[in-house]
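Lay summary. Proteins are chains of building blocks that fold into shapes, and those shapes determine what they do. In this project we predict the shape from the chain. Here is one chain we studied, written as its sequence of building blocks.
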Amino acid sequence: MMPITIRDVAKKAGVAPSTVSRVVADSSSISEKTKEKVRKVMDELNYFPNANAQRLAGSRSKTFGLVLPLASDAFYQNPFFPTVLRGINDAMSQNDYSILLSWGQTNHQRLKHIQKIVRGKQVEGLIFLYATKDDPLLNFAQEVAIPSVVVGSPGDAKVHLVDNDNEELGRIATEYLIKEGCEKIAYIGGDMDQFFILDRLKGYKQALIANNLPFQEHFIHNDFSFLALDGYHLAQNTLKLAHYDGLVIADELVAEGIQKAFAEEKSLQIKTMSFKAYEHPLYRPLTEEFYINLNSHLLGSRAVEILFDALADKEASKQRYIHEYIPADIVSVRKS
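And here is the predicted shape, written in a compact code that computers can read:
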């Protein structure tokens, strides 16, 4: 059976093929009466427009590129990314837009793919699902002036962004532990190329100084992956747990690994404050724990909405960059 074509629809509806094309594009130049007639015939003939042909015919791809960080175990396991992606997907589907994923094992692979989809007009804009120092992909996006939004804070780059106020959250997290009676608080960070690790560390330091507690470099632990196993090994082999009564842990999976290590030290009396993608703990803590719910799904949905705002007024968006911070909530999980 031959596939139904746009000419078949036009013939049965008694209109020109160009009229059917305009109906498919929902053109304002076609009356509602004609649109209803043509759409009825499309339903009767079970005709579905060719999405690729539509994109080639117009200037809009109705697709955003989602730029993922370097492929790693930390990316695939961390709850932050699927939670943000859920928010992105919700906002995209409401606007009948699609997502084109861009990723790779090396920065060279990733840059080549970004260049291909941007220059081939496969995407109208880009959402970066990470923020790192001197990112060559973000630099390219800025050079070619494609509307882009970063989930995170990429230093002083002139770009639209949506993030949590990580410096403020680092301060709040540390002060909360201080109010809970902690005086010897360690900061457990991670990859120092990630701006949120640096920002939360700044907030941690501010809170200590404001509360007349010493800032000690050997209380800071950084330069490891965001994996539960890293947190476990850190607690087992590096952290001198007896020296601390509180931990600010910048990553959810690292916190999970540390809690696993706590299970093997029954007498520990350490309170922890970590940061989670949403209000649903991965584990039941063995010590008294508090965490900050980052509401990460809102980061995703707002990134999409900001990108639509940038597309609506491209000239203005080149001069004025939207920086939005999503609020977070403190959650207490008392030891059972």
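What the prediction tells us: The longest helix spans residues 296-312.
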